[in-house]
Each structure stands twice: as C-alpha cells, then as structure tokens.
Amino acid sequence: MSDLERRSFSDADTHFQLMRSNSPVYVDGVKMGEPTGVVVCVACWRSAMNSDHICHCWDCPQKFARSRWYWRQH
Hints:
The chain is of the alpha+beta class. The protein has helices at residues 25-28, 68-73, and strands at residues 16-20, 35-41, 47-48. It has 2 helices and 3 strands; from the N terminus they run E-H-E-E-H. A 3-stranded antiparallel β-sheet has the order 1-2-3, with no helix packed on it. The protein starts with 15 loop residues before the first strand and ends with a helix.
C-alpha cells in the first residue's frame, strides 16, 4: 500500500468531525452540544465510534485514512 493510501485520520488533508448531541441529557446521557464519541467522515458522511472502523463509501477520498496505531498493527 502506498504512503498516500496510508494516511492518518489526523493528517492536515483529511477531514473528520465529532458528532455532537442534539438532545437533552435525559435522552442519551450527553449534554446538548457535547461530543457523543461518534466520528464522522466529512467526505462521505459515514460514521463510527472509532475513525479506524468507518465503512467509507467506495469512492471516498479518505477511505484509507486510519490511525497510525492501526497501520503499525496491520
């Protein structure tokens, strides 16, 4: 796999964001506006609890963006 495909989710040219709660604390246990822990790929809008586990669209330019830990382990 090339270095371009082995990009990290934290590289400057990749874009992810944390989903924020839009419900009251009694609904999901998280205050309104606080991060929920869900990571969203801004390029394809797919999400997961960990950026390494996002099932990106087949044509997503960030589909190979993983953590450096992930690349060292796999």
